């Protein structure tokens, strides 16, 4: 006679837990990217919306370039436990 129940334990909720962990990691990564490039993205979107409206967007494009350069400079700074709380 065959056993009715499987010998493997049935774990419920494991898939949801893994999904939530991945979702949390993606959210943290998104926050990190937006902290470096948020102002650049905002200026780019402002420039695109002005161009679509038929208005010159040179100031917004210049601001986006400047903030992108600033973000690149901040991203290239090596941070360690010795200097993590210094202002950049």
Written overview of the protein:
The protein has 88 residues and is an all-alpha fold. The protein has helices at 14-53, 58-75. Helix 1 (14-53) packs antiparallel against helix 2 (58-75). The longest helix is centred in the middle third of the chain and has 40 residues, at 14-53. The model has no long low-confidence stretch (mean pLDDT 79).
What is this entry, summarized?
With 88 residues, the chain is mostly helical.
Q: What order do the helices and strands come in, and which of them pair?
A:
Layout lengths: L13 H40 L4 H18 L13
Helix pairs in contact: 1-2
Secondary-structure element series:
HH
The geometry reads as flat
Total DSSP E strands: 0
Alpha-beta content class: mainly alpha
- Rg value: 24 Å
Average per-residue pLDDT, rounded, comes to 79
Write a concise keyword list for the protein shown above.
flat, 2 helices
